[in-house]
Task: structure prediction
Amino acid sequence: MVRSAGRKAGFETLAIHAGQEPEVTTGAVVVPIFQTSTFAQVAVGKNKGFEYGRTGNPTRTALETCLASLEGARWALAFASGMAASDAVAHLLEEGDHVVMGDDVYGGTYRLFARVFDRAGISLTAVDMRRPAAVRRAIRRKTKLMWIETPSNPLLKVLDVAALAEIAHRARALAIADNTFASPYLQQPLKLGVDLVLHSTTKYLGGHSDVVGGALAGNDPLLRTRLAFIQNAAGGVPGPFDAWLVLRGTKTLAVRMERHAANAQAIAEWLAGNPKVTRVNYPGLRTHPQHELAKRQMRLFGGMLSFELRGGEAAARRMAARTRIFALGESLGGVESLIEVPLAMTHGSVRGTKLAPPAGLVRLSVGIETIADLIADLAQAIG
Ligand SMILES: *Cc1c(COP(=O)(O)O)cnc(C)c1O
Result:
């Protein structure tokens, strides 16, 4: 554990130092990219902690140590993508098991359970998790997993993590929080009672739109053993360079999140005052239905927001094609601003289902560019 002058180190210090002591043979300050598939053994059955690159790699270990410290977790495991991490969690389940999840979770998460693990005999109920009574009603005898995503994508609903974890535990189900939108700088779900935290490190942790990755973090050592077994057995691991890119991004997470959140707040307020905008979803607005909950649960309100335009889908598509600084693209959490129309892009897989977002919804991943430039760009695109 990183300590500074006898006290437990703060978030920013951990992000830069946890798992990242200078390298022992050369003193390199930055963790090297151990670009190797195998490790020479000292003797048969005796090694220096690493054998084969799927099972473990020192660059990956550094990332896992760092991520665990940022989530306040005892352990973390790094994966090739957020979905590879979700897939490992799904593999904890057995035929006949049941999952309860939010009704606007990441589209790929819904697709994984509804269209891949359905064939393994795992069933799913999607509910509006803002309503605890609805969550309790959705629980069955075989409910083994509760999937919490907050703030949610793309509607920015905020869920009461502590209350939901308690409902899951009463039903003897595991509670997992997808913490991708908030990042550990804004919210630490393990401290609110969940058993597992999931990240698409592709987003804020990596932070520069140059790598795809995922992670799980938790405290229970048995859960770690089972998930590490699944990870090694199924093989969804990140390469050393990808692990290094995420680790590099993570060092600046705190300062980036401060600016993402400040820019998003300014844009949300500007949009809320624009007559062409009918609705703005951002937890930092006092009009957001869970603003008080978000204040209790999160340090800041994040860099993601969505809104609806007068004129519906046609207006949304027109605006998304006209921005110049905001790039039209999927993904989120990078330093550069992105705009998209969820139903036509990230959430295409739920079109026609009750999980489909409003057709005229526009989603922004607000970057860390100059705020006046971002607002001017949105103003000219709205027209
Ligand atoms: C992107 C994303 C995922 C999936 O992660 P990948 O790295 O794209 O596999 C899961 N959850 C949320 C909230 C995401 O935004």
Summary: The chain has two domains: 3-250, 253-382. The domain at 253-382 is CATH 3.90.1150.10 (Aspartate Aminotransferase, domain 1). The longest strand covers residues 143-149. Residues 23 and 31 are 6 Å apart (CA to CA).
